[in-house]
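Fig. S4 source data, part A: sequence.
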Amino acid sequence: MAESTEPRWLDADERRVWLAWIFATRLLWEELERDLQRDAAMPFSYYEILVMLSESPDRTLRMSELADATQSSRSRASHAVARLEELGWVERRTCNEDRRGSYAVLTPAGFVALAAAAPSHVESVRQHLFDQLSREQQVQLRDICDTLLDHLLPIVSSRGDAKTQLIERARARLDATSEQLAAT
């Protein structure tokens, strides 16, 4: 039997869910970005780089890993790191093993900037996401996101994309932390 070439169009309920997802996620990111700019005078992309570096061993990542971790192109990550270098928050170091590669390193001033920005950013996330959802809805959202990640990560990984390893490590750390909290 031949497979149908007819698209599987969304029904009215699916279309409503899809558009609500698009609108809600876009508006949420817009508010988080606006709040971070207002409160810390930095775009989310810089904040994300500082977080990634702060959570890495020796607060250091290869530039290529940083680009993967932030889902940025190499040139975009390089441009952002150059701006963070100008601010004194990040410095680049040459990779001794591979002269073509370089590392981004979070400076003490960068850690201070991150620590100063984090409280208002977390409050923004709380205000615009968590405070709007009941505990039950938060659990449902986590389940939905885990389901989507379980589907998408193998697809992305099959293309050789390194970000899947970073996401899996972050998920494992979060799961371990949750288990430790539950045990206490």
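Fig. S4 source data, part B ends here. Residues 12-40 form the longest helix (29 residues).
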